[in-house]
Amino acid sequence: MNYLSYSTQTTVKIILLFFLIVLPLNAQTEQDTTSNVQPVDSLFVMQKSPSGALWRSAVIPGWGQIYNESYWKAPVFWGFLGYNISVWIRNNDDYHKWRNKISDNKYNDDFSADDLATAQKYRDFYHEQRDQFAVWIALTYILNLVDAYVDAHMFDFDVTPDPYTSAPMLNLRVKF
Asked: Which structural domain range is residue 95 located in?
């Protein structure tokens, strides 16, 4: 049974959201004003700009990977984009070929109903394939952008092994 009205439930939800989201954010923004000056050793300056890598990859796919010194990734993206674009062009050409065949022979007496159905089937197939590879091109391009951005953020991430255990070290810090 529900004892609260809809407006009361909504008000309670808004208050809960306020306490769960807004108050922790406000608590995180409070700073210690007694020590505003940090020592020079604790300042961190990124070597690679994530937005610079993103814009480079947006202009020329793979350029952001080269900027991030991940040289092997650029030819991988070029290969995927080149393959997807070449298949898209081939499917587009086949689609137009079958579309023109239908429009040229639609009123021709030598072009039977079975030939028309077959031509329409091929036209629809190549149309769907062309559209599918357009999606693959877009996904590859977006993955190129995301990879360049994340790789620039992770450029300064130290993955040297621990000298005592020879195991890679991973340090996580969680703030509440």
From this structure: 50-153
